[in-house]
UniProtKB/TrEMBL annotation:
Lyase in keyword set: no
4-aspartylphosphate: modified positions: D55
Residue span, Response regulatory domain: 5-117
One Gene Ontology term from the biological process aspect of the record: phosphorelay signal transduction system
Coiled-coil ranges per UniProt: none
Record key words, sorted: Phosphoprotein
Protein name, entry field: Response regulator receiver domain-containing protein
The organism's place on the tree of life at top rank: Bacteria
Organism (species): Devosia psychrophila
InterPro entries xref list: Bact_response_regulator, CheY-like_superfamily, Sig_transdc_resp-reg_receiver
Cross-referenced Pfam families: Response_reg (PF00072)
Length: 130
């Protein structure tokens, strides 16, 4: 499998650093953003992100649920993982999004990223084959 590219959106620097380091140790190519605005700038750049991992509470501006909805609308095959310290909260219009409650184990997130990306790649191959 080729390298998996992930975007982590987390406003808390220590949490962001922890998950980014863990995902890099698991051989993912990881991009990071502190808030939704910088996440969208990364997504609209020339980088093909295969999975978004976003916290729900991102401080000021757009929250992670709205970010997930926006990303799903523009890139419907992208894997989306939502994390929160609160009980399960999910964007209603992103039916395939996965949820993890904080604190979570980075290895579990890494495993779910792999599952989502493998499914995405299979879908893209089937679509291209016609």
């Amino acid at each position: 499998m080729t390298c998996i590219t992930v975007l982590v959106v987390e406003d808390e620097p220590l949490m962001r650093m922890t998950i980014v380091d863990a995902l890099e140790d698991a051989n993912f190519e990881v991009h990071e953003a502190e808030h939704a605005t910088s996440a969208l700038a990364t997504l609209y750049g020339n980088i093909e992100i295969e999975c978004l991992v976003t916290d729900v509470d991102l401080g000021d501006g757009m929250d992670g649920l709205r970010l997930a909805s926006s990303v799903h609308g523009k890139w419907p095959t992208m894997g989306i993982i939502v994390v929160s310290g609160k009980d399960r909260v999910m964007p209603a219009d992103v039916p395939d999004a996965k949820f993890f409650k904080k604190p979570y184990k980075p290895a579990e997130i890494a495993g779910m990223i792999r599952e989502l990306v493998v499914a995405r790649r299979k879908h893209l191959v089937r679509t291209a084959a016609g």
